[in-house]
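Final report, closing paragraph on structural work. Over the funding period we assembled a curated collection of sequence-structure pairs, and we close with a single example.
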Amino acid sequence: MVSPTRKNAILKEAKKYQGKSLFDIIRMYDDLSVLTADLSQLNINPTPSGLILFSEEKYKIYIHDGCSENRKRFTLAHEIWHYCLHKDYLKDTGPFIDNDNTLYNRPWYFNLSEDLKNKEEEANFFAAEILMPWDLVKEAYNKDDSLQKLADFFSVSTEAMFYRLKNLSLIS
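Its predicted structure, as stored:
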């Protein structure tokens, strides 16, 4: 779980990007690009929804072209956080690979070191805050608590919306 201190730092960082499209954020950085690709060819099971790697003095985010548009958005926001905070780690260790299930449903998640779990959880927290800012979610939820309508409004999957509502203690 992301500590309260880290949450505050991530919220502060996320505020810099709120109101910007994900592609506007990408364009802010000269050494960052995003591409879509068929990541099923990596032969990783389940197929990754995205990954970020450092290559040829640039950071490259790859988004699996087989994902829904809403999943692509969440994955891109997640990978942007890895770029913002874990650049040096990427240079030393290789790519972050994100599978097409939520973080907590991934069988391999339980085999990660605590440090890597924290990095993944922080990236999910950042992505949720960028795409579903807590104040806007709370306001929208108070008007209509339909999970599907909220997910459609924020252009995220119902799964992402469910976890956001749960993490904001709007549902149990």
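The CA atoms of residues 49 and 101 lie 8 Å apart. The mean pLDDT is 87. We thank the funder for supporting this effort.
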